[in-house]
Amino acid sequence: CSDEHVHLPAKRGLGSPSLSLGLGWTIAAPTRPLEWGDLNVLHTTDTHGWLLGHQELSPPEPNYSGTFGDFADFVQHMKETALKKRVDLLLLDSGDIHDGTGLSDGSPPGTIDGHDSNQFLKRLPYDALAIGNHELYVYNNTFDMYSDFALHWKGRYLSSNVNITVPDPSDSSQNVSVPVGSRFAKFRTLMGRRVTSLGVLFDFTGFVDGTNVQPVEDMVKEQWFAEAIEEEPDLFLLVGHMPVSEDNWPIVFDAIRVIHPTTPILIFGGHAHVRDCVQLDGRSMALASGRYMETVGWMSVKFDNKQSSGSGNLTFSRRYLDTNRLTYEFHTGRNNRTFETWYGSSITRGLEELAENYDLSFEYGIAPRDYTISRDPYPSNGSSLTLFIEEAVPIALAVNNTRIAEGIPALFLTNSGSQRFDIFQGSFTKNDELTASPYTNEFWFLSNVSYGIANQVLAVLNVEGSDLRKRGLERTRKRMEEMYKRGDVEMIYNKWLEEMYAREVARARELELDRRADNTTDIVSTMGYVTTDSCPGIGDDTPHTALPFFSTPGYISSIDSPSTAAPLNITSDSTPVDVVFVDFIAEDVLEIINDLEAESGSGKVYTEDDVGLYHNLLSNQVLGVFAQEAWN
Ligand SMILES: O=c1ccn([C@@H]2O[C@H](COP(=O)(O)O)[C@@H](O)[C@H]2O)c(=O)[nH]1
């Protein structure tokens, strides 16, 4: 069993190591052993480059402070345990390994993002992996998955409904569309179980030219699909980048169930960044294992008759593990001295070297405080969304900007989903810049938009105001659907956080009443995720108190901001302004401005030709330039 030490998450090659333990911070250890079955699975998803662990001291970051090297050692030790128990232990990943930290996004210009960090995933014994939407935003990244990553996995990198167009090897003057990885895989586990595995991506429509995602509904009608599932295995293993609730897993599940009514089906999803579990029937379980290497998912199943041939309910268990050394040591029965091996530490060292090569600890300035996406209200001094759109964008885009120099007022707009992680007090490094804002979006603009029109765009985007709501509902519903298909799941993650916080507040009220009645003191636990899902029993491996949550709008603007660095100088609704937005939301902004112009009777119609490049800074460079200007 684990000893009671804590592991200080020093900024490993990513920033200042001068953090001390004297802040009353601690990690809580799990208290319940895992329930092993005949077949067991460790699951990662949406890792987004978080391979050196979460290294900040502000709660709940220490919960997730284990490195990918620590995880590798954990997997290794767990595999040994499985062998001793003569049971199977599989390791799976559900995709989105790009976009999220300096390790995945900080490679030098001209190189391929994620290529180097992917090499570390290759060092783990994954049994199957699936492609995510973040592998499909940049063609060169997808090509790298096809030509390098997929090859390593020898048929186990799954892209059942995702293709890439490449030169035809037999005739280079022609192109062919081929799966990025494999459509399916059939293999035997160490204990001899026959597995048929698929890797399905949700109906993503935001894929880059040269790649393609087939809707799930069409995929299950394909001849190859029918042939792949025809023969009955001992279990179906569906690994995919698709939420396990309210998405299309039932389509795949039902297509299999028609042919195989009782064969066990294990589903491992992702994309929504939440911890979630659903059972579609008594012989299946679907698990989603969070995001950013904060969670490792665990599922186990006991088969009837030691094989799959029965028809009653199977015994499943699931658990969401916090990714820290205490968790890993607890479940492997090791301690600080016996846990780490050469295997894991060489992976961690390699990642640290990569961070050094990319100069990820380069310091832009010193952040004066923590800024969070949802633990502070928006707008507020502690909101990273306020910081980004009201301070950082106006200040960074004012650098070498003739339009600002000429005094042309500008309104800045972005989607709040463009901000992916909190900013912490202290050294603000290149890695921090890329974790907070990893996307390489350009800033585009429309000039000479009258302020009266520009001023309404944000409200329409966010569907605020009863008038707008009435006339815009249908359009908004369509846009939300469209946004979901383009990958937007912030609302699911935020709803999850919101509900867990609401439960926490209700629980605290009850506790307070009990405490007053009994004169007892509360049990204080560390902050973290508190999951309620629809599977039996408690899912979280370590009990926590839920994090504070404040809801945020889907879109944010510098509009009417008292702290905006570029004062608006607006005298009336007819004052012409520049409307500046990230290219990711360009279509929506253009459509809304045209609708508003039409409603105002101005006769103005904007086309794509009216859209210009506002500045040569990309969205992932804004915070660095800002920090150099404001935090030095
Ligand atoms: O260029 C981009 C690409 C994506 N986004 C945001 O990311 C989500 C999708 O990320 P998941 O991890 O798959 O949820 C998308 O909806 C946007 O919010 C972006 O802002 N810019």
UniProtKB/TrEMBL annotation:
SUPFAM superfamilies: 5'-nucleotidase (syn. UDP-sugar hydrolase), C-terminal domain, Metallo-dependent phosphatases. It comes from the Eukaryota. It holds the Pfam family Metallophos. One of its GO terms (molecular function) is hydrolase activity, acting on ester bonds. GO terms for cellular component: cytosol; extracellular region. One of its GO terms (biological process) is nucleotide catabolic process. This is Calcineurin-like phosphoesterase domain-containing protein.
